[in-house]
Amino acid sequence: MEFALSQEQLALQDSIGSFLADRLPLDRVRSHAANGNGFDLALWEGLTELGVPGLMVPEAHGGTGLGLLDAALVSQALGTAAAPAPFTASVVMATITLLRSGSDTQWAAWLPRIAAGEVRIGLGFAGHGDGDLRLEGGRLSGRLGSVLDAGVPTHLVVFLADGRAALVGADDRGVSIRMQQTLDGTRPLAEVGFADAAPELLDAANEPAAAMAEVLDAGRIMLAADTLGAAQTMFDRAVDWAKQRVQFGRVIGSYQGVKYMCSDMATMLVPCHAFVWHAAHCFDTKDPEARLMACHVKAHLDEVGREVARISTEVHGGMGFTDLMGLHYWMKRIGFNRQVLGGTDRCRQEAARLQDWAA
Length: 359
Known about the structure:
The protein is of the alpha+beta class. It is built from eleven helices and ten strands. Helices cover 53% and strands 15% of the residues. The chain has a four-stranded mixed beta sheet, covered by helices on one side. A hairpin with a 5-residue loop joins β4 and β5 (165-169). It is globular and about 75 Å long.
């Protein structure tokens, strides 16, 4: 069987990549990293014009009805540019939550607004985040940390420990949001407090825990794709530097040691493209191994991303650590992705359980 991207997917990848390359020079990435809220209004409006918020929203509700593989291509492009845009949680995970756990009425109320870019939704898990949530008498109380895409949200989706999801407005009574300082200034996390808040429950799923697991799987695949994009940028910049930097009368790329470093990075990165595509394809087709692939691809890209970040910085020598070169913005993005929605050890432990290799 031949597996490759379609012409439409290649066109999507090129259009998003070209848009981001034009809109996000290094100076703009630098300014948004300093700001730390992970949101650029002009960039968001441009992405909305390209249809990014409605990527996975069904056509009947104003979206384009594409799959997670298409979303992975966009996520990779966002990682390539270190884009300060709410995507993983707001566009992908929130949409899947509504599709899996929302009613027809909730679809009609929320999906068109997501597709139009009117709402930006932060998302967190009581079972995976730092905190505890209680739903009593239809009222939500407690605290939840590590909420994704919560820099400038309009709404929040929170998963209770039993898998039920609740949707609240970011400005609703009883809801408080406190930004958390993270490694990556282009994508913040937030701690959210609830004091007798009145949520809208998304409880139409027959198996809430299974629906929650799907949302987590999708998020992990998106982070793997984002890491791939960031690592690819660091590799490309290292190769360009090796071709132009002259030491002892020769470009450093002509030295065997530097050639080995660049070839090592290429060897690690090239298979990762197919790995991310396969994991997303398994999710879209409801393959029995979809959950396993989500765990493995997140863990694998976490490790590959870290190695590429290290080696590409070393290729630049002392300049690689300076803000002038800006490599650290992609390095921090890779580090951020490694730590959220389950690190390498946790993902591999879950994969081992799925294969009955661990208790």
